[in-house]
Each structure stands twice: as structure tokens, then as C-alpha cells.
């Protein structure tokens, strides 16, 4: 039986590779799945085999070199494609405190002195060299020698913590692959590891990978789709409407919309949007409708920024907290659960539609044949130099939208009423266009991603 190490450098890949049918399908294909685990989540609780990495720490300079690489790649893409939108993916360097000032000064120095293709390659090679000199790397080498996997599959390509394990595998001649984790990662210069093979969501993402990284060859890429949407197609995850309403103390006479929150950096206006929607629903209910809002916050947003609006509109807004678990003191030690995947599916299934700021929830929604509305206006007193919605929707990944009608656009508070009423319809242009968008961004059928991944692994091993 061939042994596959599923590398979890952080918690983001757990949902895709531990909470889906991925392991079950692999086992039925005579593949042994072992989770190579650098998280605080105990996979043995899921009756899964794991090898725990106990010393997963980066070289002190790796974070600096990662930032330098990103700046150089973004600068190169801006020039190559004559498109200033890429500059929006860069954040100001942190200069708070002496330590950050030193880091930022070194970062600027390295950027200035490596503005060429050769310079970028030097930075990449130096990053890998730094990681090969860590205790983390040597721990990885020792574990690979002991367990002898046939393939190491990294669950996401965007974290520096993946570099040492992948470099360790390559040093021992073990085949490597990585999964491109999110639909917006490639334009953002977030490919931090180099592997033998790459798993992508769609042919659209395959073209992106070849566009941004021309040294990668088409034969190294497998179009698999992403497992993150598979739970929406499993009827066993869904409660009846009566069970769902009773469990979360919802008004059984009322129909709800789902507001899906972002983190405070992505959408600082979320409390404003929720209040504007709540005001609108209050007015609609006075006209004889009976609507409410289920509010699902971003799982790693523990701020109090929503408290006032929830209290003010407690008759309208029902917060349902994501079922993630805090397994440590850091934000990145908040881990997803199987229960939360089921909760998310039920929140969509039993509501009329989803409202949020430009997230991939549009695809989760259409999996349940529900439409999504994108909030598309700024706060009246906003400092538009720091943040604005135009910047958000100019990001490259929104160019994959087949038409502007794939979502409803809420361009001002006065648009909310008609948008909500349109979202109650079961067959709109937005339904059809969102389905097209989903098929562009993710391989069809969406519930077969794990099957396609296992097929790709078998091809690689053969």
C-alpha cells in the first residue's frame, strides 16, 4: 500500500483533507493516508493516522525574505501585465517599535538590491537555504526517513511553514505536490513552495498558474476542484427546517437572510452593512413581511464591533457563532470543526440568500441554489485612502465573473429593499450566472473534488 503524507503546515487545510471524504476515498483506493501535522488539532480524534511535527518554527529571517519575495513578484507582475491593480496586494511595512523598524529597513534594502529576475531567484533560493538550516527542517528529514512516504501533498501553498517540510522531502527524493488553497491566491503572489506537481481548482486557475509562474509546465498541473464545497452536496449534513429553527431559537413564522461576516481588515464596514440591512427589514416587516437576519461572523473575528448593532436590532438579528474551537492562545490556533461545516451548510440552506462583501460565499450559496448580494458602498465618513470597496472589487479574481449579474449589487442603502425582495425569487438571472461562475472557478461536478485528487495521486505514483 502506498503511503501519502498530507502536510498540514497550519490549520487551513484541515477542512479540505480531514473533514471531507478524502481519506475514505483514498483508503478504498488502497492508499494509506497519514497526516503530517504541524497544528494543535489532534487528528487521532477522527481515527486518522498522524505524525506530529513538534518543532515547526521558521528561521528568524524567513518572514523578511517572504515579504521581499512578495514585493518583487508583485512589482514584476505590475510591469509584465501593465496593470496597477497588483499594487493593491501589498500592505505597508510595519514600523511600530524598534524590532519592526529594523525588519522593515532590511526588507527595503533587499527589495532595492534585487529588482531583477536574477535577484528574485536569489531571494527565493536564500529563503529555502534559511529554512534548510532550521531544527524544523532536520525534524522533518528525520520523520520522513522513519516513515518513508511515497508522496508528500501540502494542503496549502501560502504559508512559510510549508517550506521546510517540502524541502526535506525533495532532499530525500520523495515526490511532492501542493494544493492551491484559495481562488484569489495566485494573483497575490502567494506561491511560497515549489513542488513536483500542483493541484488547482479549475482550468481557469491552471491558466493563472502558468501565467504567473511560467517555469511550471502544464504536465505538472492537475485540475481537481476544491473539496471545500463538497459538504454542501451531502444531504446527511442538513437538518430539517423545524430542527434547525428549534436548535437556534429562530422564529418559525419568519424567513431569514444570512449575513456572512469578513475579518475586520477585509471589511471594516460590516457593522454598518448589517445595521442598514436590519433597518430595511424593520421597514419591510412594518409593511407586512416577516424577515430576519442570521449573522455568521468570521470565525477568527473575536471583536466587539457588532455588539451595539446586535443589541439595537435584537428582534431582527440572530447571531449564530461559528463552531470553531480555540485550541491555543494565538489567532491561528482557532481550528475549524466538522460541526461548523454542517452549521455553515444549514445556515445557507435554511435562509433566502447570502449577503456579504465580495467573498467566495457566493459559491457556497449557489451550491444550495441560493443567490448572493455583494455590499458595494462605503461608510459616509470613511477615509477612502485607507480602505474602499472599489479597491476590493478591482481585485484580479473578480475578473473570472462571467457577467456583472452573477450577484446582486447593493450600491447604496436604498438598494437593499429591492435586493432582498429579488433574493426571495427562486429562479433569477443571478441564479444562472452564479452557476456559470461556479463552473468557471471550480471543476464540475463540485462534489467530486476528492475523487479527482485521489485519481491524480494514483497517476503521480504510477
Automatic annotation (TrEMBL):
It comes from the Bacteria. This is UDP-glycosyltransferase.
Amino acid at each position: 500500500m502506498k503511503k501519502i503524507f498530507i502536510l498540514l503546515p497550519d490549520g487551513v487545510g484541515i477542512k479540505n483533507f480531514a473533514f471531507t471524504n478524502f481519506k475514505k476515498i483514498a483508503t478504498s483506493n488502497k492508499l494509506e493516508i497519514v497526516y503530517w501535522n504541524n497544528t494543535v488539532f489532534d487528528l487521532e480524534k477522527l481515527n486518522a493516522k498522524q505524525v506530529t511535527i513538534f518543532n515547526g518554527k521558521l528561521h528568524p529571517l524567513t518572514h523578511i525574505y517572504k515579504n521581499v519575495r512578495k514585493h518583487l513578484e508583485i512589482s514584476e507582475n505590475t510591469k509584465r501585465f501593465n496593470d496597477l491593480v497588483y499594487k493593491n496586494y501589498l500592505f505597508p511595512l510595519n514600523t511600530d517599535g524598534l524590532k519592526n523598524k529594523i525588519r522593515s529597513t532590511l526588507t527595503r534594502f533587499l527589495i532595492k538590491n534585487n529588482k531583477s529576475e536574477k535577484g528574485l531567484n536569489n531571494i527565493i533560493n536564500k529563503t529555502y537555504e534559511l529554512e534548510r538550516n532550521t531544527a524544523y527542517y532536520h525534524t522533518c528529514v528525520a520523520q520522513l526517513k522513519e516513515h518513508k512516504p511515497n508522496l508528500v501533498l501540502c494542503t496549502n501553498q501560502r504559508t512559510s511553514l510549508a517550506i521546510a517540510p517540502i524541502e526535506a522531502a525533495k532532499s530525500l527524493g520523495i515526490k511532492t505536490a501542493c494544493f492551491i488553497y484559495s481562488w484569489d491566491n495566485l494573483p497575490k503572489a502567494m506561491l511560497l513552495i515549489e513542488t513536483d506537481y500542483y493541484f488547482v481548482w479549475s482550468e481557469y486557475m491552471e491558466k493563472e498558474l502558468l501565467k504567473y509562474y511560467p517555469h511550471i509546465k502544464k504536465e505538472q498541473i492537475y485540475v481537481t476542484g476544491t473539496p471545500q464545497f463538497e459538504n454542501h452536496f451531502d444531504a446527511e449534513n442538513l437538518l430539517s427546517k423545524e430542527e434547525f429553527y428549534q436548535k437556534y431559537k429562530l422564529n418559525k413564522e419568519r424567513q431569514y437572510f444570512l449575513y456572512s461576516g469578513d475579518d475586520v481588515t477585509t471589511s471594516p464596514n460590516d457593522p454598518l452593512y448589517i445595521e442598514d440591512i436590519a433597518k430595511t427589514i424593520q421597514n419591510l416587516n412594518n409593511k407586512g413581511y416577516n424577515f430576519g437576519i442570521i449573522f455568521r461572523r468570521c470565525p477568527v473575528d473575536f471583536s466587539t464591533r457588532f455588539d451595539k448593532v446586535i443589541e439595537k436590532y435584537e428582534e431582527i438579528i440572530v447571531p449564530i457563532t461559528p463552531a470553531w474551537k480555540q485550541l491555543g492562545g494565538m489567532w491561528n490556533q482557532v481550528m475549524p470543526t466538522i460541526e461548523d461545516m454542517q452549521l455553515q451548510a444549514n445556515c445557507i440552506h435554511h435562509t433566502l440568500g447570502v449577503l456579504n462583501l465580495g467573498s467566495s460565499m457566493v459559491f457556497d450559496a449557489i451550491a444550495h441554489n441560493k443567490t448572493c448580494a455583494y455590499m458595494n458602498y462605503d461608510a459616509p465618513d470613511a477615509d477612502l485612502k485607507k480602505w474602499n470597496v472599489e479597491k476590493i472589487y478591482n481585485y484580479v479574481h473578480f475578473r473570472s465573473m462571467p457577467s456583472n449579474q452573477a450577484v446582486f449589487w447593493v450600491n447604496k442603502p436604498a438598494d437593499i429593499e429591492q435586493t432582498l425582495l429579488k433574493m426571495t425569487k427562486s429562479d433569477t438571472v443571478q441564479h444562472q450566472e452564479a452557476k456559470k461562475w461556479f463552473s468557471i472557478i471550480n471543476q464540475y461536478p463540485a462534489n467530486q473534488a476528492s475523487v479527482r485528487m485521489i485519481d491524480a495521486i494514483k497517476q503521480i505514483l504510477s
